[in-house]
Amino acid sequence: MIRTVRDLLEDHRFFRGLDGERLDLLAGCGRLEVFRPQARLLREGQPADRFFLVRSGRVLVEIDLGPRGVVPVETVGAGDVLGWSWIVPPYRYRFDAVATALTRTITMDGACLRDKCEQDPALGYDLLRRFAGVLAHRLAATRMQLCDVYGYPLAGAPGTGP
Amino acid sequence: MGSEPATGHEPAPATGVGPGGGDGVGLTVPARYRVADARRETADVVTLRIEPDGEPVAPGTPGRFHMLWAPGVGEVPISLSDGPAPDGTQWHTIRAVGAVTRALCALGPGAPLGVRGPFGRGWDLDAVGGRDVVVVAGGIGLVPLRPAIRALARREGPGRVALLVGARSPDDLCFADDLEAWAGGGRCEVAVTVDRAPRGWTGDVGFVSNLIDRLPWVGEGTAALCCGPEPMMKVCARMLTDRGVPATAVQVSLERNMACGLAHCGRCQLGGRLLCRDGPVVTYAAVRADLEVPQR
Fold it and tell me: Minimal Cα distance from A58: which residue of B?
C-alpha cells in the first residue's frame, strides 16, 4: 500500500493528536525526500524555506566556527523535527545540518506553511506550541550538555569514589 | 595493564543482606583481597579483577556497593561491575577522581586491598518483571547497571530492553565490547550519545534525555533504571514520568557520601533515608520530593 504524505504526517510524533482536517491542509506543503550520508540539509545564513520531519536516519547539527573548525552540537533522528527558523523572522537558518546516515524525511515548505497559518490562526497557534515544546526541550538538553555533568562526579558516589 | 575482559559471570547466590565473615570481617573490618588483573577502560577508568586472599565477603547483587580500601590511603564506595564469581572473584570499575580512587586505579596484579560489603539495596529486577524496560546510563553510571543489563538481556519473554548511554565524549565510553555485544544480541536496543564529539564521529550527539524521545513505546507499562549524575537522572526521571511511566517503576541510583556503609555515620543522608542502607537504588517516587530540595 502506498502511503501518502498525509499518512506519514499522521504517524510522525511531532503531529501527534492533530485533527484530520488540519493534517489534510498541512500535507499540501509536504514532500518526501531521501538524503544520502554527507548530504547537506541546512546551511547557516541561507533562507529558511523548509523544515524536516525525520522518518529515519540521522542528521548532525553543527556550528562552523571558521578557523576553529566545525563543532558537532546535536543529532536528530527518527521522530525528531529539524529546523525552526522558517517560523520566525528573518527566516534564515542558524546552523548547518548534514545527514550522517541514509535519512528519510517529510520536508515541509516553510512559506506554504506560513500562508496556511495566516489563514488559520488556530493552526498557527498549534504549530507554534509544538515548536515551542521542541525548542524548550532542546534548550534544556543543551544546557545540560554545557554543564558537563559527566565531568565532575560527587566524591563518595558508588562507582566513582572520592 | 591486563587484557582479560570481565566475562559476565552468573552471580554467586546471595546469602543475605549483610556482609559475611566472622568477627566483623567484611562488615566493619575489610576482608583481604588481591588484584588479579587491571584493565584500563578509558584514560581515567580502570576495571580491577580482585580475588579473596582469605575469606571472601558475602556475594553482592547488581547495584549494591562495596567499600574498597587502598592501604595507607583510604576507603571509597564502589559498585560491582561484574561478578562475584563462585570463587569470590569480583570486578570493580573505578574512575580516578580523587586520592583514593587514583590509588586504586594504580594498583597492579598482586597488590593487596581491603573490601567491606556488600552494602545497601541494588536494582529490584523482580519489580521490573517482564515489562518493557528503559535503562539510562550516564558516564560512569553504566558501571552499576552493567550486571543488571546482563540479567535483563538474558530475560525471556516479550519485554523490550532499551539501553540509552550518555557520555562526555567517545573517548569516555566504557565497556565498548559489551555495548556492541548487547546491541548485536537482539534482546537489547542500544543507543549511545555524547555531549562532545570530534569531527568524524558518526554516532549521536546531544544529552542522553534526547534518546528517550525516540522510544515510541515508553509509557504506563514501562519500567526504568537510571544511573548517572543526579541532574541527569532528574531530567530523565521527569521525562519518563511525563511519558506515563509510573514514578514507582523508575529506579534511580543516588550519589551521596557513603562512609561507614552501616547507617551509623549519617553522611549519606537524603531526607529521612540513609542511602548506604536504604539505597543507593531507590524508586523515583520515594525520593522525588527530596531531590527537588535545593542543595545550597
Answer: B204
Per-domain residue ranges for chain B?
A: 22-119, 125-253
What is the nearest CA distance from A92 to chain B, expressed in angstroms? 23
In chain A the first and final C-alpha atoms are separated, in Å, by: 60
- Of A10-19, A152-161, B2-11, least confident by mean pLDDT is B2-11
- Check if CATH label 3.40.50.80 holds for domain B125-253: yes
Report pLDDT digits (tens) over A85-114.
999 899 999 999 999 999 999 999 999 999
Report the complex ipTM. 0.84
Find out whether B31 and B21 touch, Cβ atoms under 8 Å.
Answer: yes
Peptide bond just before B84 cis, omega within 30 deg: yes
Burial of A157 from C-beta contacts in 10 A (0-12 / 13-18 / 19+): buried
Which residues make Cβ contacts (< 8 Å) with residue B80, sequence separation at least 6?
Answer: B60, B62, B64, B65, B66, B90, B91, B92, B118, B144, B147
Q: How far is residue B295's CA from residue B191's CA, in Å, rounded to a whole number?
A: 32
Residue of chain B nearest A153, judged by CA positions: B229
How many whole angstroms separate alpha carbon B241 and alpha carbon B8?
A: 31
- For residue B216, say if its preceding peptide bond is cis, omega within 30 degrees of 0: no
Contacts of B120 in chain A (CB under 8 A): 158
pLDDT tens across B253-273, in order?
998 888 888 888 888 888 888
A5-150: which CATH topology? Jelly Rolls (2.60.120)
d(CA B107, CA B210): 38
pLDDT of res. A75: 96
Helix, strand, coil content of chain A in percent (nearest 5): 40, 30, 35
DSSP state, residue B139: G
Paired sense of beta strands B189-194 and B161-167, if any: parallel
